[in-house]
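Our preliminary data section would be incomplete without showing what the modeling component actually yields. Below, a chain of 212 amino acids is followed by its predicted structure, encoded as tokens that our downstream tools consume directly.
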Amino acid sequence: MGEEERRIRQIMDRLNAHFEDRPMEFLTDREPWKLLLATILSAQCTDARVNQVTKVLYQHYPRLEDIAAASQEEIEREIYTTGFYHNKARNLRACAQVLLLRFDGTVPDEMEALLTLPGVGRKTANLILGEIYGKPSIVVDTHVKRVSRRLGLVTATDPTKVEAELKTVLPESFWILWNTRLMALGRTYCTAKAPNCADCYLSDLCPRVGVE
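Predicted structure:
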């Protein structure tokens, strides 16, 4: 085992240990279509807020068919507090309709098919592939991009390129967990501004790329 591979495994071991010690709130829905729509809502919104909103949304619209049949205005009223509610409501309705018309109400398990759904990009598609179908995939959000760069694992800034670089350095068994682990670190120690490197449990393994 090379030195860099050993460092990466040490990083993951510590991420896993501290993740268990500091549980964070993530999207809670695990029914495929509900998680898919919740992920669309999560853009520029906290998972905690999305969980609050979807709890009520899915009480009022418990079936995918109900979302597809609702008016945009009705959905907007339900999701208003997630922000960007006009676009999100339009995407939720359209996504539900496409799932019913083209996929018989089943969330597809292939990247190419997922990317044809309204409101779905690589981030959302990778989350569905990993969380629902257990397929090796890396979700790249702002935390993954920032922390991976500081750890010296990637140099890119474009999310698609970050994903590609991570796939070349991370063991495939790490891919699905990488997002939640780095999200937890990014919300606590490795914040965008004034990261707490002194107290971070990865301080001896991190070159702190770009941190002044």
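The chain has a mean pLDDT of 95. The chain has two domains: 3-23+138-205, 32-131. Preliminary results of this kind motivate Aim 1 of the renewal.
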